Amino acid sequence: MRHRIVGELMTPGVVSVGPDTPFKEIAQLLAGNDITSVPVIDDQDRPLGVVSEADLLRHEAAGEDPNGLLPKPRLSARDRDRSEATTARGLMTSPAVCARPEWTVVEAARVMEQRHFKRLLVVDEAGRLIGVVSRSDLLRVFLRHDQAIREEIRHEVVGRVLGLSPDQLDVKVADGMVTLSGTLQHRSVAHALIQLAKGVDGVIAVVDQLGYRFDDTPAAARSGLAP
Question: Hey, what CATH topology would domain 144-223 get?
């Protein structure tokens, strides 16, 4: 089974800045390119951190309320320094969290979920920035045609991985929802098929309508039901 990887989904040619790029230039880059953050890289294209809209707005949020109605916020020493910074070096959030081009969609999605990120920088084996992958990029796997998903399950999962005849099972796919039906020799194979089908790119859910002749699972063996 082949899964699409970050290197196939990422956007290359990322807009970036150096550590000495001034505040206003960063703001202009974000607005001019319709992006919400920009990586900060060194002279060897290695990410040092990221400056986001939130990092720039910290400067305004830390200021005095012109109407005198709001108290001045209490900031840590680090946040105070960042609110007063005028270049990317002081504004950025670091270190940068990066992905590798060989990561699967699952690996990248888990990091995004755990860190509450909308996108990840992608670096090569030398740590140099080569692209960026976003949540919307990862969601492209769910745009696969139903027929492509069906053929992968039939020929890759059923035929190549499990060594069964694709014609002995019925595989239906509608809007990424897979329904598997038919009768297999062993329950363990039916279970493996369900799990493998769930891992196919573009599959949203699997409906199990499979039957089996023998229950060879450990639970059945302990209860004396296995053949």
Answer: Histidine-containing Protein; Chain: A; (3.30.1340)
DSSP state of 48: E
Q: Which residues contact 149 (CB under 8 A, 6 or more apart)?
A: 173, 176, 178, 200, 201, 202, 203
Whether a cis peptide bond, with omega within 30° of 0, leads into 95 is yes
Calculate ∠ Cα 4-150-212, nearest 5°: 115
Using DSSP's 3-state secondary structure scheme, residue 131 falls into strand
Residue 220 has pLDDT above 80, yes or no: no
Per-residue pLDDT tens digits for 97-150: 999 999 999 899 999 999 999 999 999 999 999 999 999 999 998 899 999 999
Give the largest Cα separation in the chain, rounded: 81
* pLDDT at position 214 over 70: yes
The residue with tokens 């996108």 is 119
Dihedral angle computed from the Cα positions of residues 219, 222, 223 and 227, in that order, rounded to the nearest 10 degrees: 90
Strands (E), the chain: 37-41, 47-52, 98-99, 119-123, 129-134, 170-174, 177-186, 205-214
Secondary structure string (H, E, C) spanning 145-170:
CHHHHHHHHHHHHHHHHCCCCHHHCE
**Architecture of domain 6-141 in this structure:** Roll (3.10)
pLDDT band at residue 154 under the 50/70/90 scheme:
very high
